[in-house]
Amino acid sequence: MENQQLNKRYGLFTAICMVVGIVIGSGVFFKAQDILNYTSGNILLSTLAWIIGGAVMVICAFTFSNFATQYAKVNGVVDYAEAIIGKKYAYMTGWFLSTIYFPAMTSVLAWVSARYTLLLFDAEADITSGLCMSLGAFYLCLAYALNILSPKLAGKFQVSATVIKLIPLAIIVLVGTIVGFANGNTVGAFTASLQSSSGDFSSVFAGIAAAAFAYEGWIIATSINAELKNPKKNLPIALVVGTLIIIFVYVMYSIGLMGGASVDVLRRTGSAAAFRNLFGAVGGTVLNAFVVISCLGTLNGLMLACTRSMYSVAVRDCGPSPATFSVVDPYTNMPTNSGVLALLFCGTWYFYFYASNLTAPLFGLFSFDSSELPIITIYGIYIPIFITYVIKKLKAKGEKSIFKDIVMPVLATVASAFMVFVAIFAHGIKPYRAAAENGEFAFPVLFYLIVFIVIMVIGALLYRKKEQLNSEK
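Below the sequence we write its predicted structure tokens.
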């Protein structure tokens, strides 16, 4: 009973703060620029992309919060998949997270951290240069070493980075918005968007796909249910209120940037110029330094999850050599073998990211956006979970809430399917149409699917092999 009381230590306000702290990361700092470019600088369309992407997050987060209150002993999408669908689907979800999702996201964050480091010294720095990619590789190895050799220090850095990353957002939301309306930049940008013929509604789809990167992380917030007071009531409230706050902050940040720079400048250089124009060379550099720390904090958090991902598969007695990757080092209390494999996966995806962003992409047709497509895939993985849950509730004779158990999972299914469509349009149909006009072929989402299927088939074969060995015992 004493441990149970200690576990139930978080109130509603703390839970809301945790949701905001978990989700807000580095994505908004560089995806704001991408979204502006996708929408041809149309601030109305870019704002709409932020809002729609956020609405999908709210719907799915609320639905998963309902799962968390029902399956109190499990945390995370892998465990929800096992509780609702079964062990095999949970394993395949874990395999995807271990081999594609976490290492791909971690590699992108290493590059983002290097990018903003270089922008501290040169606003026009080449962010695809060898110097940038070398620095990113260094950050990747540094994050790995920190998590494997000193997990306590990694945890302390994570807490500090969580606080620091809110500083530039808060300052730009407050100061940038006020200055933008005072100097007319913000009103001018919205007026120009109303009058402009540049950008079309379909460009919002690409913006939504980009926004998904900035909004990712909300699923982790469902893991606080075991330590939350009155979780059945407070967790859904915390997730909904927290995600609404995040949408507001992201939208206001993208608007606040216009207080320091024109839309054209923001499309070309991102937030660096706005920081300098608003706060001078020194103040702008300090804010950019906060952004670098924020990015490194997100990189650290992703590496933390990455080093443990294959371990989480191995402890289920699945994946390649479970006995090897489930080993925990007695000195560091870390899954060292899992961490080594994670670094190998991260390095592979990092090289892929670099090679795909060269002026002449090394992989040619197989060059796709590894920062967005793995995230959209997660929404595809959610769909069977939502549908199976609804079917189970409809068949169950026990008490059920029509809103929580039927309506919201159905809406979450539609929202997740919409995100998949967005990815197909933004990374498939639209590039294909543009290339077809020049007599070329470009369908990057197709080539991502090929890579995805190959990796997942390997995972399925490993699972089948393990099942055969178990049946022979």
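The longest helix spans residues 271-314.
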